[in-house]
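Dear colleagues,

For the upcoming journal club I promised to circulate an example of a predicted protein-ligand complex. I picked one with s-citryldethia Coenzyme A because it came up in last month's discussion. The inputs are reproduced below in full, followed by the predicted structure.
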Amino acid sequence: QTGKFTYDPGFLSTASCNSTITYIDGDKGELLYRGYPIEQLAVNCDFLDTCHLLLYGDLPNADQRTDFHGRVTNHTMVNEQMQFFLRGFRRDAHPMAILTGLVGALSAFYHDSTDINNPQHRDIAAIRLIAKMPTLVAMAYKYTVGQPYMYPQNDLSYAGNFMRMMFATPCETYKVNPVIERALDRIFILHADHEQNASTSTVRLCGSSGTNPFAAIAAGVACLWGPSHGGANEACLNMLGDIQKMGGVAKVGEFMNQVKDKNSGVKLMGFGHRVYKNYDPRAKLMRETCHEVLGELGLQNDPLFKLAMELEKIALEDDYFVARKLYPNVDFYSGIVQRAIGIPVPLFTAIFALARTVGWIAQLNEMIADPEYKIGRPRQLFVGAAPRDVPPLSAR
Ligand code: SDX
């Protein structure tokens, strides 16, 4: 009898933990970080305020804000040895391959001094990771384009510093565009946490063995890379580009027919969600951010943005999508706005990882702080061969 593997989605979708960090109502399309609606945070706060909220449970007052921003700013540089680690990669390596390696390599510098069960050690690891991710993502980018690394500049904002490390060169002074700076900061807020998604669950499971937080976050980076998860923004932009090549808006109907044909394997990337069966609130905010950035850059007639809005309009009126409660998710517009800012497509998921690091580390720290937590050990439904005796070779 040969075993037949059957997958029981219900088995894996049971609640995996208690958490106080992020609440999602998938049917209503609601997302709250520590009780604050994402719509209010995206407008009234900046990303570092949101990091403070996710890590410590509340928004910082003025003194706490100054202290937290200062602590992060003072940890933005990475050890000079990290440059030699990069040199092992081909210049055309995918930025997520590089980032997975770089984040894991951070553990080589901090593993010995980090006791995951010490709250102070967990806190400094969180600060270091939040502070260093923009530097590592920018280094990965600079390495692939053969430009010198730009060191962090402490008088800039978190988003402004990242922009300068990405786009400046030593040859000229770089001026941060405040509209782009605000848009990037908002993109970070929208991606900061999302309860027990695949990469967060990976970080929790990895961290539950007691490994250091840098290694656990590296596992999250690797999981996020997948096109069904954080890689969807890159896949979505490539999909829009393919439709554009097919003939643009005029070919949307033909493309949608491919999506509805189950045998085609074609998905409408940036649509659908494991939890949201309504509009992802982040997608609405991302579309507004798109409008702002394209307006600022004089790209209001960006063909891919127009194509995306047409796709969304058609899908939201199409019975196939309505019946399956398929709506735009966070990835549908995020690629268009990042491309307009000048971020290369392969780097989109690295930006997602940069932003999600605070969520990963907040969720990891919440788990480790729980005295009841144990190493994760999911079970299985065994549907394989029944017990049997080993036959002699002649009888096999
Ligand atoms: C992220 O978990 C998180 O929170 C993740 C995330 C986060 O912040 O961490 O929100 C980030 O990962 C967002 C999702 C990004 N992925 C994509 O945009 C890739 C395209 N979307 C899908 O592959 C899909 O929607 C999933 C994987 C996200 C969800 O897949 P499910 O669980 O199968 O969705 P479902 O059960 O709601 O599907 C219902 C039906 C199925 O068809 P039927 O078998 O009922 O006929 O809709 C179909 C699905 O096949 N379907 C799609 C589709 N998504 C689901 N059909 C076409 N295009 C799609 N995008």
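Two points we might discuss: The radius of gyration is 22 Å. The first strand starts at residue 22 and ends at 25.

See you all on Thursday,
B. R.
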